[in-house]
Design a protein that fits this description.
TIM Barrel; 8 strands; alpha/beta; 12 helices; globular
């Protein structure tokens, strides 16, 4: 697997959905790895490439989630220099085998050679070790995938399974405002980790918040998404403006005159 993530200790990840590589420069060093969400984020090719480069700049592995199982999209993400690729909605071992073909070089797979960035950075022999140096992560996101977790994990070339909590819960009839906890996700998380332990694969999860992070750790998940640009922007904005409005209201109730344009710093 990616050497930077092969420490055996839990690795905490930052999710990026907005096309702003400056976010990585500013807060990327705080994290162990970066989840670049090319499936649901607002990222095109150039955006994703710039974010992967920013991750390299701050020395953090970039793991790109692609939008589909399409052969070219998977190999292109690796050609950007991604340390790993997450492929969504992998329900069957047949799908996993097709994904391996796109992600791994022969003889294990059928990835096309010629990625401009890996050759520029590492030379033409980078393909000799690329299968071992990068991560292929299959996302388990449905009851069918949970049932097939063992046989998906058994596929040679699949390096990790990633439980997708939102889609699993949605497909089990939960609303999106239902809590993420042991009662709603515990059995599915354990099924994924059981398959990973059996076949020597890595377990990946979303551990947002204290409860889910502790649950992920207790089950043995190693690669854990624990923060994201969306949550940081939304939550900090809300708390900051709430505090500011309380100060404004307190100032108004004190009877002091409000600032005029002449005294405004803007």
């Amino acid at each position: 697997m990616c050497p930077a993530l092969a420490t055996g200790a839990p690795q905490l990840g930052l999710c990026i959905m907005y096309p702003a590589p400056g976010i990585i420069e500013r807060i990327g060093p705080d994290w162990d790895w970066v989840w670049v969400d090319g499936q649901h984020g607002e990222l095109g090719y150039q955006d994703t490439l710039a974010i992967v480069r920013a991750c390299d700049l701050v020395g953090k592995p970039a793991i790109v989630r692609v939008a589909s199982h399409e052969f070219g999209g998977i190999s292109l993400a690796f050609d950007m220099g991604a340390a790993g690729v997450i492929v969504p909605v992998v329900d069957t071992p047949e799908q996993a085998k097709a994904i391996v073909k796109a992600a791994k070089f022969p003889p294990l797979g059928g990835r096309s050679y010629g990625g401009r960035r890996p050759i520029d950075l590492h030379g033409r022999m980078f393909s000799d070790t690329a299968n071992d140096d990068t991560l292929l992560i299959c996302q388990i996101e449905s009851p069918e995938a949970i049932e097939n977790a063992d046989v998906i994990a058994a596929v040679p070339g699949v390096d990790a399974l990633f439980l997708g909590p939102d889609d699993v819960m949605l497909r089990r009839g939960f609303k999106m405002n239902a809590p993420r906890n042991k009662e709603t996700l515990g059995k599915d998380m354990e099924a994924v980790m059981k398959a990973c332990r059996k076949h020597g694969k890595i377990g990946c999860s979303v551990g947002m918040g204290e409860e889910m992070l502790k649950l992920s750790l207790s089950m043995g998940f190693q690669i854990i998404v624990s923060g994201g640009d969306v949550a940081f922007l939304a939550n900090t904005s809300k708390s900051t403006v709430t505090e500011a409005r309380e100060i404004v209201n307190g100032h108004a109730s004190s009877g002091k005159p409000a600032a005029t344009d002449a005294t405004s710093p803007y």
